Amino acid sequence: MLDILYRDDVMVAIDKPSGLLVHRTALDRHETEFAVQRLRDQIGRRVWPVHRLDRGTSGVLLFALDADSAHALAQQFARHLPQKRYLAVVRGHPPEHGEIDHALRRVDESLDPRSAREGVEAVTAQPALTRYRRLALAEEPVATDRYPTSRYALVEARPLTGRTHQIRRHLKHIAHPVIGDARYGKGVHNRYVAGLCGDTRLLLACVQLQITHPQTGEEKVLACRPGRAFDLLAQRWHWRTAMDDVLDEAGFRLPA
Question: What predicted TM-score, i.e. pTM, was given to this entire model?
Answer without folding.
Answer: 0.91
